[in-house]
Structure of Methionyl-tRNA formyltransferase:
Amino acid sequence: MLNIVFCGSPEFAALSLDYLIEHKCAISAVVTMPDRQQGRGRKLMFNAVKETALRHQLPVLQPEKATDPVFLNDLRSLKPDLILVVAYGKILRPQFLAIPRYGCVNLHASYLPYYRGASPIHQALLNGDTETGITTFLINEGMDSGDMILREKIVIADDETLGTLHDKLADAGAKLLLDTVQAFSNGMPRLYPQDHSKATYTQKILPEMAEIDWAQPAEAIRNRIRAFDPAPGARTSIQIRNQHRILKLFCPKVIQKETTAAPGTIVDVTPHGLIIACGKNCIIVSQVQLEGKKRMPAEEFIRGYPDAAGIRLN
Protein backbone atom coordinates (compact mmCIF):
# COMPACT_ATOMS: atom_id res chain seq x y z
CA MET A 1 0.00 0.00 0.00
CA LEU A 2 1.25 3.46 -0.92
CA ASN A 3 2.46 5.67 1.93
CA ILE A 4 0.76 9.04 1.39
CA VAL A 5 1.18 12.51 2.85
CA PHE A 6 -1.79 14.82 2.23
CA CYS A 7 -1.41 18.62 1.91
CA GLY A 8 -4.46 20.89 1.91
CA SER A 9 -6.36 23.51 3.87
CA PRO A 10 -9.96 24.49 2.91
CA GLU A 11 -13.21 22.54 2.70
CA PHE A 12 -12.52 21.66 -0.95
CA ALA A 13 -9.46 19.69 0.19
CA ALA A 14 -11.09 18.24 3.31
CA LEU A 15 -13.61 16.37 1.20
CA SER A 16 -10.76 14.67 -0.70
CA LEU A 17 -9.00 13.75 2.54
CA ASP A 18 -12.18 12.26 3.99
CA TYR A 19 -12.80 10.28 0.80
CA LEU A 20 -9.27 8.85 0.71
CA ILE A 21 -9.50 7.78 4.35
CA GLU A 22 -12.93 6.24 3.75
CA HIS A 23 -11.39 4.14 0.98
CA LYS A 24 -8.56 2.90 3.21
CA CYS A 25 -5.68 4.91 1.77
CA ALA A 26 -2.66 4.97 4.08
CA ILE A 27 -2.29 8.62 5.09
CA SER A 28 0.79 8.90 7.32
CA ALA A 29 0.50 12.66 7.95
CA VAL A 30 -1.41 15.78 6.96
CA VAL A 31 0.25 19.11 6.12
CA THR A 32 -1.89 22.23 6.36
CA MET A 33 -1.70 25.99 6.88
CA PRO A 34 -0.97 27.32 10.39
CA ASP A 35 -3.91 28.17 12.63
CA ARG A 36 -5.06 31.78 12.32
CA GLN A 37 -6.81 34.13 14.70
CA GLN A 38 -10.33 34.95 13.62
CA GLY A 39 -13.39 36.76 14.90
CA ARG A 40 -13.81 39.43 17.54
CA GLY A 41 -12.21 37.26 20.20
CA ARG A 42 -9.19 36.60 17.98
CA LYS A 43 -9.46 32.90 18.76
CA LEU A 44 -7.24 30.41 16.96
CA MET A 45 -9.38 28.59 14.41
CA PHE A 46 -8.64 25.24 12.77
CA ASN A 47 -9.18 24.96 9.02
CA ALA A 48 -11.34 22.22 7.51
CA VAL A 49 -8.43 19.90 6.68
CA LYS A 50 -6.98 20.08 10.19
CA GLU A 51 -10.38 19.34 11.68
CA THR A 52 -10.72 16.31 9.39
CA ALA A 53 -7.22 15.07 10.23
CA LEU A 54 -7.81 15.37 13.98
CA ARG A 55 -11.14 13.59 13.69
CA HIS A 56 -9.29 10.65 12.13
CA GLN A 57 -6.39 10.95 14.61
CA LEU A 58 -3.81 11.71 11.92
CA PRO A 59 -0.55 13.57 12.65
CA VAL A 60 -0.74 17.22 11.54
CA LEU A 61 2.20 19.37 10.40
CA GLN A 62 1.69 23.16 10.12
CA PRO A 63 4.90 24.88 9.02
CA GLU A 64 4.96 28.64 8.65
CA LYS A 65 7.15 28.06 5.60
CA ALA A 66 7.21 24.95 3.43
CA THR A 67 10.98 25.49 3.07
CA ASP A 68 11.64 25.21 6.82
CA PRO A 69 14.54 22.70 7.25
CA VAL A 70 13.06 21.09 10.38
CA PHE A 71 9.74 20.57 8.60
CA LEU A 72 11.44 19.12 5.51
CA ASN A 73 13.40 16.68 7.68
CA ASP A 74 10.18 15.61 9.40
CA LEU A 75 8.62 15.08 5.98
CA ARG A 76 11.59 13.03 4.75
CA SER A 77 11.43 10.84 7.84
CA LEU A 78 7.94 9.74 6.79
CA LYS A 79 9.37 8.31 3.53
CA PRO A 80 6.23 9.00 1.50
CA ASP A 81 5.59 7.33 -1.83
CA LEU A 82 3.24 10.16 -2.84
CA ILE A 83 2.43 13.62 -1.60
CA LEU A 84 -1.07 14.72 -2.59
CA VAL A 85 -1.70 18.46 -2.76
CA VAL A 86 -5.20 19.98 -2.83
CA ALA A 87 -5.52 23.74 -2.29
CA TYR A 88 -2.72 23.76 0.27
CA GLY A 89 -1.95 27.47 -0.03
CA LYS A 90 1.84 27.54 -0.29
CA ILE A 91 4.29 27.42 -3.21
CA LEU A 92 6.28 24.18 -3.11
CA ARG A 93 10.00 24.42 -3.88
CA PRO A 94 12.30 21.76 -5.42
CA GLN A 95 13.55 20.50 -2.03
CA PHE A 96 9.93 19.69 -1.11
CA LEU A 97 9.01 18.21 -4.49
CA ALA A 98 12.00 15.84 -4.41
CA ILE A 99 10.94 14.09 -1.19
CA PRO A 100 8.29 11.53 -2.28
CA ARG A 101 9.23 8.43 -4.24
CA TYR A 102 6.86 9.11 -7.13
CA GLY A 103 6.51 12.88 -6.78
CA CYS A 104 3.87 15.37 -5.67
CA VAL A 105 0.42 15.17 -7.26
CA ASN A 106 -1.93 18.16 -7.39
CA LEU A 107 -5.69 18.15 -7.85
CA HIS A 108 -6.66 21.26 -9.83
CA ALA A 109 -10.22 22.50 -10.34
CA SER A 110 -10.06 22.99 -14.11
CA TYR A 111 -9.59 21.01 -17.29
CA LEU A 112 -5.90 21.78 -17.76
CA PRO A 113 -4.18 23.47 -19.50
CA TYR A 114 -7.13 25.89 -19.20
CA TYR A 115 -7.44 28.13 -16.13
CA ARG A 116 -4.12 27.58 -14.45
CA GLY A 117 -3.75 29.54 -11.23
CA ALA A 118 -5.65 30.41 -8.08
CA SER A 119 -9.26 31.01 -9.17
CA PRO A 120 -10.36 28.51 -11.85
CA ILE A 121 -13.91 28.11 -10.52
CA HIS A 122 -14.59 31.85 -10.44
CA GLN A 123 -13.11 32.29 -13.91
CA ALA A 124 -15.19 29.57 -15.54
CA LEU A 125 -18.35 31.25 -14.24
CA LEU A 126 -17.22 34.79 -15.09
CA ASN A 127 -16.60 33.66 -18.66
CA GLY A 128 -20.00 31.99 -18.91
CA ASP A 129 -18.50 28.58 -19.72
CA THR A 130 -20.83 25.61 -20.09
CA GLU A 131 -18.21 23.10 -18.95
CA THR A 132 -15.05 22.97 -16.90
CA GLY A 133 -13.17 20.06 -15.37
CA ILE A 134 -10.76 18.63 -12.85
CA THR A 135 -7.22 17.41 -13.40
CA THR A 136 -4.52 15.57 -11.47
CA PHE A 137 -0.92 16.21 -12.47
CA LEU A 138 2.64 15.89 -11.23
CA ILE A 139 3.79 19.18 -9.74
CA ASN A 140 6.85 20.83 -11.27
CA GLU A 141 8.31 24.30 -10.71
CA GLY A 142 5.84 25.95 -13.11
CA MET A 143 2.31 27.14 -12.39
CA ASP A 144 0.02 24.12 -12.80
CA SER A 145 2.10 23.08 -15.82
CA GLY A 146 3.18 19.54 -14.89
CA ASP A 147 2.40 16.34 -16.78
CA MET A 148 -1.19 15.21 -16.34
CA ILE A 149 -2.35 11.90 -14.92
CA LEU A 150 -6.17 12.04 -15.13
CA ARG A 151 -8.71 14.60 -16.37
CA GLU A 152 -12.48 14.75 -16.31
CA LYS A 153 -14.89 17.26 -17.86
CA ILE A 154 -17.69 18.65 -15.69
CA VAL A 155 -20.87 20.30 -17.01
CA ILE A 156 -21.70 23.77 -15.68
CA ALA A 157 -25.48 24.06 -15.28
CA ASP A 158 -27.25 27.22 -16.42
CA ASP A 159 -28.08 28.16 -12.82
CA GLU A 160 -24.69 27.08 -11.41
CA THR A 161 -23.14 29.33 -8.77
CA LEU A 162 -19.73 29.49 -7.15
CA GLY A 163 -21.09 27.48 -4.24
CA THR A 164 -22.74 24.72 -6.24
CA LEU A 165 -19.88 24.39 -8.72
CA HIS A 166 -17.33 24.32 -5.88
CA ASP A 167 -19.20 21.42 -4.28
CA LYS A 168 -19.63 19.59 -7.59
CA LEU A 169 -15.91 19.86 -8.38
CA ALA A 170 -14.89 18.94 -4.82
CA ASP A 171 -16.98 15.77 -5.01
CA ALA A 172 -15.74 14.79 -8.47
CA GLY A 173 -12.19 15.77 -7.51
CA ALA A 174 -12.15 13.48 -4.49
CA LYS A 175 -13.09 10.54 -6.69
CA LEU A 176 -10.53 11.48 -9.34
CA LEU A 177 -7.83 11.75 -6.67
CA LEU A 178 -8.61 8.24 -5.43
CA ASP A 179 -8.44 6.96 -9.03
CA THR A 180 -5.08 8.70 -9.33
CA VAL A 181 -3.73 7.02 -6.18
CA GLN A 182 -4.88 3.67 -7.54
CA ALA A 183 -3.09 4.42 -10.83
CA PHE A 184 0.19 4.50 -8.86
CA SER A 185 -0.41 1.07 -7.31
CA ASN A 186 1.85 -0.64 -9.86
CA GLY A 187 4.44 2.13 -10.11
CA MET A 188 4.54 5.33 -12.12
CA PRO A 189 1.44 5.59 -14.37
CA ARG A 190 1.34 6.95 -17.89
CA LEU A 191 1.73 10.73 -17.95
CA TYR A 192 0.31 13.17 -20.51
CA PRO A 193 2.17 16.43 -21.25
CA GLN A 194 0.03 19.57 -21.29
CA ASP A 195 -0.32 21.56 -24.50
CA HIS A 196 1.25 24.75 -23.19
CA SER A 197 0.22 26.69 -26.31
CA LYS A 198 -3.41 26.39 -25.12
CA ALA A 199 -2.75 27.44 -21.52
CA THR A 200 -4.90 30.16 -19.98
CA TYR A 201 -4.41 31.75 -16.58
CA THR A 202 -6.56 33.06 -13.75
CA GLN A 203 -5.87 35.89 -11.35
CA LYS A 204 -6.25 36.35 -7.63
CA ILE A 205 -9.80 37.30 -6.73
CA LEU A 206 -9.96 40.83 -5.31
CA PRO A 207 -12.92 42.38 -3.43
CA GLU A 208 -13.57 44.96 -6.15
CA MET A 209 -14.18 42.18 -8.69
CA ALA A 210 -17.56 41.57 -7.02
CA GLU A 211 -18.75 45.08 -7.95
CA ILE A 212 -21.36 45.19 -10.70
CA ASP A 213 -20.79 47.44 -13.72
CA TRP A 214 -24.26 48.11 -15.08
CA ALA A 215 -22.85 49.29 -18.42
CA GLN A 216 -22.01 45.66 -19.19
CA PRO A 217 -24.43 43.39 -21.09
CA ALA A 218 -26.96 41.46 -19.02
CA GLU A 219 -25.22 38.16 -19.73
CA ALA A 220 -21.90 39.41 -18.29
CA ILE A 221 -23.65 40.75 -15.20
CA ARG A 222 -25.49 37.47 -14.75
CA ASN A 223 -22.17 35.62 -14.88
CA ARG A 224 -20.62 37.95 -12.30
CA ILE A 225 -23.50 37.44 -9.89
CA ARG A 226 -23.18 33.66 -10.21
CA ALA A 227 -19.40 33.82 -9.75
CA PHE A 228 -19.71 35.48 -6.33
CA ASP A 229 -22.68 33.55 -4.94
CA PRO A 230 -22.79 32.84 -2.02
CA ALA A 231 -19.75 34.85 -0.93
CA PRO A 232 -18.90 37.64 -0.97
CA GLY A 233 -21.94 38.37 -3.14
CA ALA A 234 -21.94 40.56 -6.26
CA ARG A 235 -22.79 44.04 -5.08
CA THR A 236 -24.14 47.37 -6.18
CA SER A 237 -25.35 50.40 -4.21
CA ILE A 238 -28.86 51.72 -3.82
CA GLN A 239 -30.19 54.99 -2.44
CA ILE A 240 -33.32 54.38 -0.41
CA ARG A 241 -34.86 56.69 2.15
CA ASN A 242 -31.99 59.15 1.64
CA GLN A 243 -29.33 56.59 2.46
CA HIS A 244 -26.73 54.91 0.24
CA ARG A 245 -26.59 51.21 1.08
CA ILE A 246 -24.91 48.14 -0.38
CA LEU A 247 -27.25 45.74 -2.15
CA LYS A 248 -26.08 42.24 -3.07
CA LEU A 249 -27.85 40.39 -5.86
CA PHE A 250 -28.44 36.66 -6.37
CA CYS A 251 -30.28 34.22 -8.64
CA PRO A 252 -30.20 36.23 -11.90
CA LYS A 253 -31.78 35.50 -15.25
CA VAL A 254 -31.35 37.41 -18.51
CA ILE A 255 -34.43 38.99 -20.05
CA GLN A 256 -34.17 39.72 -23.77
CA LYS A 257 -35.64 43.18 -23.39
CA GLU A 258 -34.36 46.54 -24.55
CA THR A 259 -35.24 49.63 -22.54
CA THR A 260 -34.61 53.36 -22.72
CA ALA A 261 -33.86 53.42 -18.99
CA ALA A 262 -30.27 54.09 -17.94
CA PRO A 263 -28.20 51.00 -17.08
CA GLY A 264 -28.70 50.08 -13.42
CA THR A 265 -32.28 51.35 -13.27
CA ILE A 266 -34.86 49.10 -11.61
CA VAL A 267 -37.38 49.20 -14.44
CA ASP A 268 -40.00 47.00 -12.78
CA VAL A 269 -40.79 45.06 -9.62
CA THR A 270 -42.70 41.79 -9.96
CA PRO A 271 -43.58 38.85 -7.70
CA HIS A 272 -40.65 37.06 -9.37
CA GLY A 273 -38.02 39.71 -8.67
CA LEU A 274 -36.42 43.02 -9.60
CA ILE A 275 -36.00 43.75 -13.31
CA ILE A 276 -32.89 45.88 -13.86
CA ALA A 277 -31.67 47.58 -17.04
CA CYS A 278 -28.16 46.65 -18.22
CA GLY A 279 -25.89 47.89 -20.99
CA LYS A 280 -27.70 45.40 -23.21
CA ASN A 281 -30.99 43.72 -22.26
CA CYS A 282 -32.13 43.35 -18.65
CA ILE A 283 -31.75 40.93 -15.77
CA ILE A 284 -34.25 39.82 -13.19
CA VAL A 285 -32.91 38.88 -9.75
CA SER A 286 -35.06 36.80 -7.42
CA GLN A 287 -32.94 37.14 -4.25
CA VAL A 288 -31.21 40.14 -2.68
CA GLN A 289 -29.35 41.10 0.47
CA LEU A 290 -29.55 44.67 1.70
CA GLU A 291 -26.65 45.91 3.82
CA GLY A 292 -27.26 44.93 7.44
CA LYS A 293 -29.96 42.39 6.51
CA LYS A 294 -30.09 38.70 5.70
CA ARG A 295 -30.41 37.33 2.18
CA MET A 296 -34.09 37.32 1.24
CA PRO A 297 -36.46 36.74 -1.69
CA ALA A 298 -36.77 39.85 -3.82
CA GLU A 299 -40.52 39.72 -3.18
CA GLU A 300 -39.86 40.30 0.54
CA PHE A 301 -37.55 43.22 -0.27
CA ILE A 302 -40.23 44.75 -2.50
CA ARG A 303 -42.79 44.57 0.32
CA GLY A 304 -40.44 46.67 2.45
CA TYR A 305 -39.59 49.06 -0.40
CA PRO A 306 -42.61 49.10 -2.73
CA ASP A 307 -41.39 52.27 -4.46
CA ALA A 308 -38.13 50.62 -5.65
CA ALA A 309 -39.11 50.87 -9.33
CA GLY A 310 -37.29 53.76 -10.97
CA ILE A 311 -34.36 53.77 -8.54
CA ARG A 312 -30.99 53.64 -10.26
CA LEU A 313 -28.35 51.31 -8.83
CA ASN A 314 -24.69 52.25 -9.13
Notes: The chain has two domains: 3-198, 207-304. The chain has a mean pLDDT of 96.
